[in-house]
Input
Amino acid sequence: MTSPLISIRRQLLYLSLLLLLGSGLAAYWGAKAYGERAARISFDQLMLGSVLQMAESISLADGDIVIDLPRSAFEILAMARNDRAFYGIFGPDHQRLTGYDDIPQPPLDAVRTSANPDTPVQYYYYATYRGERVRFLAIHKQLIEDDRATEVTIIVGQTLAARQALADEISLLVLQYVIAFFCVALLLLVFGIRKILKPLHTLELAIAARSPVDVQPLAVAVPKEIKPLVDTINHYMAQLDSTLSRLDKFTAEAAHQMRTPLAGLKLQAENALEETEPGIRQQQLQQILESANLLANTVNQLLNQATLAHRFQSETPQWLSLDRLVQESCRELVVWALNQEVEIAYLSELQVRLKGDDFALKQMLRNLIENAVKYSPPGGTVEVDIHLDEQAFPARVVLQIRDQGTGIPDEEKEQVFERFYRAQDNLHPGVGIGLAMAREVAEHHHAHLRLKDNEPQGLIVEVVFPYPRETTI
Amino acid sequence: MKHLIFVLTFAWLLVTHGARAAEHYHYPARNGAAMTARTLIIHGAADHPAMVPLFEAFQKRHPEIEIRYAEFSTRALYRHFLDSYPQSADLIMSPAMDLQIKLVNDGYALSYVSDQTEALPDWAKWRNEVFGFTYEPITIALNTQVLQGEPLPQSRSQLLDLIRTFDQRFTGKIGMLDIETVGMGYLTWTHDSQQSRTYGRLLEVFGSQQARLYPNSTSLLQALDSGEVMVAYNVLGSYASAWALRNPDLAVILPTDYTSVIMRSAFIPKEAPHKKEAQLFLDFLLSTRGQQILANESSLNPVDERVTGPHSISHLRRSTQSPLRPIPFGLELLLQTDDAKRQLLLHEWFESIESSLAD
Output
């Protein structure tokens, strides 16, 4: 018994949840990045405005650098209500002109931007200053007066509280949308999954509602994805139906086949008991023995049949050598055949490996060869041959067992495969199971068993195997 | 408060620098047990008498806390804080808003949030690190003897017109806080320079009239009282009103063009040795009770709008038509601390004085 897999509903739900969570997280991270970027850009712009105003207020007057910082430059910085701000203005040799003297100078890897030729190159960088992380912006400004020129550096820094607050606000907003989307999607998913799985449930109910002996095909409307399942169930039911009826027939036939010889045996035995004439009695006992042998044979075949049916269901096919199996079977039967004055000739040198059940194949071969020997006239020869039919597409392996007996008329060629079928004029002992069983074995190996007429007379039993993928010639 | 043991120690004049001299006052713990005494060190610029009712009320509630108060001038307070850092007091109180903001911006202040600080309006605090606790109009005080029948000027331009018309009466008779050494003088003067379209005329007239600079409000008002000066420009309304009560000749003008308003503010330094006590005092100072004491018993105007009385904001707003223009309490004040700006303003001032001397 295999342990049940996780329910489809749960799998679907988990998968969708995973997908939702994944996309939600991705959306949130994206929003966070976007929020931070948006906040950074807006506050960088404010800082730039402040720096440009400061730059505007620096001039050269009689060779002296004059700085008259405007109030608006600080008002812009104060828009980030809770942030500290720092500034410094430095002369050409980094000497402080005003502001904080220990403000960090732009590092070499500061981000350089210059939006257009009218604005100076801006250096943006982060640094820890006076116990807090600070965003800095530095620009250089050329001061020109008459023929004098000098350069000043203006640096403005601002702590990150307002940026963080804005970024948080943006991402929080997005998070709210993501959560709302998540809830709605989850709700839809739960309903959707329920609706999609509903036909399965209907199917389950339909099967559960059946009586145990009802093997009629299911008539439930299902989506096309589930249709194969229903088809398989129906196919299985049809098989079950045919198996059941075959079993039914087989049981009846077997009972009949065994009851009749048993009744004969009983009668013969009673006669023998009453017979006083030793000669006749001897003859009667001989008959009893023959009948018993026949019955034993029948029982053997029935048991074999049952064994085969079981093997087909339980054994997995193994790679085996067909030619060796055929040779073994011939060898085992050759002495028995010679007793009946029949020769068995194995004609092939082909080596064939295929996947199958060696026990079953051997049963089939024995049956077929025994039959051939049985129906051969004394002095006849049974030819056993394996050859490759390369004309056919795909190629096939053909096993032939040819005899020179009376053959089977065409109108009976199909009937002989029915269980317990015996031709009217059949004088040989037998129960009529062998061929039926042989055909079952052949079919189990995806092979085709058919009967042909031999020239000038006799029967050819032909088993055509599909060309195995692993063949050595 | 008769049973109050009041030890006034006119102590150690810190002679390191004349301008940095501080006056020290000591209020021992009232529960007597010196072992359990807790200490609170306050450095401030408020006149000591204005603080006394507050200290007494605070000690009534917390008798185990001794208070050490040192009074500085605003700029000296700022310098002293920086020079002695990382040693510091527990609470720094000053009306020089720009210097307070500068210290906070430079990262010296401890953040503190309580019910009391939360109750403060946003414009009266910054970063939850520095908290305004008064709301004081800056006025022009006039010795009415100088009018000789002329109507009392109500605005800066009326005052300037008056001075121009009777320039003889005003020469050397205009007084102001020293903008170079007194933080509040500089703060209010720079605020004028930003606000007023009359700033240019103020500068010109004050220069030509040889305005005199005083090292603190008391000496300026004393000079006004004695007639040494006839106009005291940019004096705290609370102080001026107190003097006007004693001398009927003194008139206090809330200029109708605009009246600047400053806030005294307090912050707890990060290195404060007694942070708990400082927080207790700050909460008390900002509480309705503390604010009411400012209004009733001290001459300071409380910032709490719920407080009533002659010193309250609501009374101030009702009693004057003058537009009140509070100096914004925030990062903008960094400009006032800018060295280059300071040099420019001082330069303008002295140039104005000197050019009139040269005439």
In short: Chain A has three domains: 8-168, 212-314, 316-473. Chain A touches chain B at residues 66-69, 71, 73-75, 77-78, 81-87, 89, 97-99, 130-132 (CB under 8 Å). Chain A has eight helices and 15 strands.
